[in-house]
Amino acid sequence: MPKFHDSHGVKGASDEDFMKLQKSPEDEFGVAHINILYNRAEDKAFCFIDAPSKEAVEKHHAKLGYTCDWIIEVQTTA
Questions:
Q1: What angle do CA 49, 52, 64 make, to 5 degrees?
Q2: Is the pLDDT of residue 12 over 90?
Q3: In whole angstroms, what is the distance from residue 72 CA to residue 62 CA?
Q4: Domain range holding 19?
Q5: Per-residue CA distances from 26 to 21, 41, 61, 65, 75 (Å)
Q6: Residue 21's domain is classified under what CATH number?
Q7: Cβ pair 49, 31 in contact under 8 A
């Protein structure tokens, strides 16, 4: 499965919201979170996710009310 990294605003999400999202199973778009990094003071979140395509990442975030600043496909060393 391809891996993607994206950035968007935090939009008032709580620690619990992020933890719940990270632990959620793959959604209807085939997206599953691996890790979420965020900084409320900077209003910035960075998602590291498994997804079949960039379009799936966009649809996943739109469903949650987020618009990504950018989305890139990445490779990992692990």
A1: 55
A2: no
A3: 16
A4: 3-74
A5: 10, 29, 13, 18, 20
A6: 3.30.70.3090
A7: yes
Among candidates 35, 45, 39, 44, which has minimal Cα distance to 76? Answer: 35
Q: How many domains does the chain have?
A: 1
Residue in this structure with the two tokens 């900084």, named with its chain if needed: 39
Tell the residue number behind the tokens 């979140």, with chain if given.
45
pLDDT of residue 78: 78
- The reported pTM is 0.92
- Condensed to tens digits (0 to 9), the pLDDT of residues 19-67 reads 999 999 999 999 999 999 999 999 999 999 999 999 999 999 999 999 9
Q: What residue type is assigned to position 66 of the chain?
A: Y
DSSP 8-state assignment for residue 28: T
The pair of structure tokens assigned to 77 is: 């060393």
